[in-house]
Amino acid sequence: MLFSSEQVSNGHPDKICDQISDAIVTDILAHDKKARIAAEVCIKDYDIIILGEITSTYIPDYQSLVMGVLRNIGLEDLDKYKVQELISAQSPDIAMGVDNDGAGDQGMMFGYATKESAEMLPIPYVLSTRALQKLRAFNLANHFSILKPDAKAQVSFDYKEHKIDTFLLSSQHSESVSLKEVRAIIEKIMKETAEEMNLNTDFRVLVNPTGRFVLGSSFADSGLTGRKIIADTYGGAAHHGGGAFSGKDPSKVDRSAAYMARKVARDIVSSGRADRCEVQLAYAIGVADPVSVYLDCFGTEKEPAGNIWRSVLDSYDLTPKGIIKYLDLLNVDYNPVSSYGHFGKSELPWEK
């Protein structure tokens, strides 16, 4: 039985946008804890548009934030990028509900945890993510002279045999570099990643299957905030409510409740009450308490699932205000989660 998960690098055009959106969120919240932020970004070639609704006493230096993100990614010709802002204030109709501690929107959010990896995330997702993080480390060490920032990884994992079936990684590269050179670098990264997780290295290797990946980033594709929600979470192994995380302040339950659902699922698995757990929270706009709380342990629970469900209701404040306070979400640096996943990083409050 094969299951595949993918991840994208921080140089992918959609991830460029996520990183700018979360740089905006982090900067504004550092200066104004009461701010309401819904910041989306789109990019094509050298044109970047910031759009959305922001209500705050603080106005960030958008140009500086964008340039900082692009520089960190390793993009070139920074002086050629143009930034346009299309921003208005949050709707007063929405503010009415949020300012009374209600949810900023309706919707359902999911959290998931599994014993199968140290990160409590699905193995193929972890492999894809770790490989791209290793690729970034290689690029930083070599000043992006060989490979470039845009990359995607995908792993097909055989759960029955507990082995990697196919490891795919495509990376942008310098025009002067041959596919043979690219393959040697990436195959080494793949094998190191597999060995670190005590997995097989006799998998099928696919590197840049088209044979060439010189044109990349926003020059090969447009980018938009919130288009990589599966790469942000569980690689498709769990449900997703559909709402993106990046660019939103924590009054938006799309973000805060998804983090809390992950925290609850993680606590259940780490305490040994189940080997796998998925938690769903659902909200109505302007209403503080969730309209439903659901969990599924997929038959791996060590005690009656009803007992676990009741303990969740008794142990956690699942209102937006309670979640924000419990996870200290107004003081989180959201820059680290805007690429390579929102989960599995031990420094994050919902991963503790």
What fraction of residues sit in β-strands?
15-25%
Percent helix: 25-40%
> What would the CATH topology of the domain at 107-118 and 252-351 be?
GMP Synthetase, Chain A, domain 3
Spell out the helices and strands N to C.
Answer: EHEEHEHEHEEHEEHEEHH
The total of helices stands at: 8
- Morphology: flat
Tell me which CATH architecture of the domain at 107-118 and 252-351 applies here.
2-Layer Sandwich
Low-confidence stretches: none
The value of Rg in angstroms is 21 Å
Query: Gap between N and C termini, in Å?
Result: 32 Å
Structural account:
Among the domains are: 2-7 and 122-216, GMP Synthetase, Chain A, domain 3 (2-Layer Sandwich), CATH 3.30.300.10; 107-118 and 252-351, GMP Synthetase, Chain A, domain 3, CATH 3.30.300.10. Helix 1 (13-31) packs across helix 2. The model has no long low-confidence stretch (mean pLDDT 96). The protein is an alpha+beta fold. Strand 6 (147-158) and strand 7 (163-173) form a beta hairpin. The protein contains eight helices and eleven strands. Strands 1-6-7-8 form a four-stranded mixed β-sheet, with helices on one face.
Give a short synopsis of this structure.
This protein is an alpha+beta fold and 352 residues long. The protein is built from 8 helices and 11 strands.
